[in-house]
């Protein structure tokens, strides 16, 4: 495989369930990466962010390190303090979702 995208497509073709897991991990990684970038832009430490969100420092560390996925309410608290907005958009291929249900 020459590229990561080619590898992911190979995994999807071979085992769609694992392909879905890859997609989920990438989506979470993008969200957390955006949070970290924004926290740095605002010159906030992990401890500062935790305090502002009424979360433990270790919770923020675990989320940012990928050891824990935040639940929606925690994610919204973090986004609010970071001045970020969570936006949901439809997938390009809704017919694929309808067939897998």
Q: Determine the oligomeric state from the structure.
A: single chain
Number of alpha- plus pi-helical segments: 6
What is the average per-residue confidence, as pLDDT, rounded to a whole number? 88
Helix proportion? over 70%
Instruction: List the helices and strands in order.
Output: HHHHHH
Q: Uncertain segments of ≥5 residues (pLDDT<50)?
A: none
CATH topology: 434 Repressor (Amino-terminal Domain)
* CATH superfamily placement: lambda repressor-like DNA-binding domains
| CATH classification class | Mainly Alpha
What does this protein look like?
This protein is an all-alpha fold. It has one domain: 434 Repressor (Amino-terminal Domain), CATH 1.10.260.40. The protein is 71% helix and 0% strand. It contains six helices and no strands. Helix 3 packs across helix 5. The protein is elongated.
Question: Features of this protein?
Answer:
6 helices; 434 Repressor (Amino-terminal Domain); elongated; 101 residues; mainly alpha
Q: Topology of this protein?
A:
Elements: H1 4-14, H2 16-41, H3 46-53, H4 57-65, H5 72-82, H6 94-100
Short précis:
By secondary structure, this protein is mainly α. The protein is built from six helices and no strands.
């Amino acid at each position: 495989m020459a590229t990561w995208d080619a590898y992911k497509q190979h995994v999807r073709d071979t085992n769609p369930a694992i392909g879905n897991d890859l997609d989920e991990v990438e989506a979470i990684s993008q969200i957390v990466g955006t949070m970290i970038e924004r926290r740095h832009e605002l010159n906030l430490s992990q401890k500062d962010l935790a305090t502002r969100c009424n979360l433990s420092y270790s919770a923020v560390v675990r989320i940012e390190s990928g050891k824990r996925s935040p639940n929606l309410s925690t994610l919204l608290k973090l986004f609010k303090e970071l001045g970020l907005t969570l936006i949901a958009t439809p997938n390009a291929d809704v017919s694929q979702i309808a067939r897998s249900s």
